[in-house]
Amino acid sequence: MTERTLGASPLDALVDSWGAPPEHFWLRGERPPRPVVHDEALGLWNVYGHPEAVEVFADPAAFSSDIGRYFTPDVPKEETEGLLTQMDPPEHRALRQVVSRAFTPKLVAGLAPRIAAFTHDLLDQAEGRGTLEFVEDLAYPLPVTVIAELLGVPSEDRAMFREWSDQILARTQLPAAGGDADSAEVESALDLARRMTEYFDGHAEERRRHPREDLLTKLVQAEVDGERLSPRVLGNFAQLLFIAGHITTTILLGNTVLCLDAHPEWWQRLRRDRTAVPGVIEESLRLLTPFEVFYRATTRDVDLGGHRVPEGRVVALYTGAANRDERVFADPDVFRPERDPNPHLAFGRGIHFCLGAPLARLEARIALEVLLDRFPDLRTDPANPPVLMGSPELTGPRTLPLLTARARTGPARAAAV
């Protein structure tokens, strides 16, 4: 059971009409009964508290990221080799350093002119319609074009990339620990992973013959413990970088627009003061957290949130709930971009902190500033409201129709709810 709190955000009154999954009680201004709750049906220990989630993130020795065998025990281990999110030290550290050396702050900062150009080009294509399907017109194609260019794969394959993303995001039920996963769903996921790995390995093979100045070439040339990455590891690693490199940003862009639309006074403030843009992005990440669940498995008996969690149990970290923990955030349901500090967990924490966080923040900042310049009356369409993704592991718009120009006649825009 959960408890509803006072002082909820205007967003909390809208999420049901947008189709938010029922599991996301925090989006409705509700609180969990305890920071840690055992879910017997799914075999999970759900962590809703911020300090407790930080504790798990900070201790990879006690809380392993190698969780595949708990959900899909029949899948051979080699199928997931190179998936950084499911690796523990020291292997994780060695592979992460490969991309860290290539994915530098200087490289990310240098992408700013290209990101701005991409944003303008995409909006030029939508100009003049009076409407903007924000996900299709900008929030998806912008980050996928950027990460494709970084990796060195053709952005013209964008339609195929979208098909991949849609399949990855299609799950509408939380997985159960213990190997009871739907066999057809598992096989479909494995088939997609194999096709993606083959795609990236094909481009990697071309880079072995003809190196370029791109991230895929750096992965081909990289060594871990004196050895080059195997085709399996390289393919899995590249697909993870690709998927993580655009999905988070796509959702972040949409969520930021949703937050601003529900709080139009912040649209006006940003038009006067662009220095407030980073704070708006961080608060959007906290209030509408894109990736809601991270999983870990206990390597020994541990004490967590007043419970004794046995060895070999899966812990589900609900960062969306943790980001509204009253013990850490004052008025946690209120959109307050001037929060300082704002220690949200949207990008994780610890050794698995999202490598692409600086790029996601840069893309969101530039896209938002371009939108402010080009569309002074940007707003949602009351006749065509947003629709959220159905996945209980994600929060973000699947569709987000926007009006880009105020009509010359007709009623004025309704007051924000």
How is this structure best described in words?
- The model is unreliable at 407-417 (pLDDT under 50).
- β3 and β4 (44-47) form a beta hairpin.
- This protein has a five-stranded mixed sheet. The chain has a three-stranded antiparallel sheet with strand order 6-16-13.
- It is of the alpha+beta class.
- It has one domain (3-403): Cytochrome p450 (Orthogonal Bundle), CATH 1.10.630.
- The chain has helices spanning 50-57, 68-71, 91-102, 105-109, 112-126, 134-139, 141-151, 158-168, 183-209, 215-221, 231-262, 264-272, 277-287, 319-322, 357-374; strands at 3-4, 30-31, 36-39, 44-47, 63-64, 131-133, 223-224, 227-228, 293-298, 302-304, 307-309, 314-318, 379-380, 387-388, 397-399, 401-403.
Summarize, please.
It is built from 15 helices and 16 strands. It is an alpha+beta fold.
Set out the fold topology:
Blueprint: E1 3-4, E2 30-31, E3 36-39, E4 44-47, H1 50-57, E5 63-64, H2 68-71, H3 91-102, H4 105-109, H5 112-126, E6 131-133, H6 134-139, H7 141-151, H8 158-168, H9 183-209, H10 215-221, E7 223-224, E8 227-228, H11 231-262, H12 264-272, H13 277-287, E9 293-298, E10 302-304, E11 307-309, E12 314-318, H14 319-322, H15 357-374, E13 379-380, E14 387-388, E15 397-399, E16 401-403
Please tell me the CATH architecture by its name: Orthogonal Bundle
Low-pLDDT parts are 407-417
As laid out across the biggest beta sheet, the strand order is 3-4-12-9-5
Work out the number of β strands: 16
- The CA-CA distance between the termini, in Å, is 27 Å
Main sheet properties: 5 strands, mixed
Q: How would you describe the oligomerization state of the chains in this entry?
A: single chain
The total number of structural domains is: 1
Q: What's the total helix number?
A: 15
Mean pLDDT: 88
CATH topology: Cytochrome p450
The whole-angstrom Rg is: 21 Å
CATH superfamily: Cytochrome P450
Helix content: 40-55%
Shape: globular
Query: DSSP strand (E) fraction?
Result: 5-15%
CATH class identity: Mainly Alpha
Kindly name the structural category.
alpha+beta
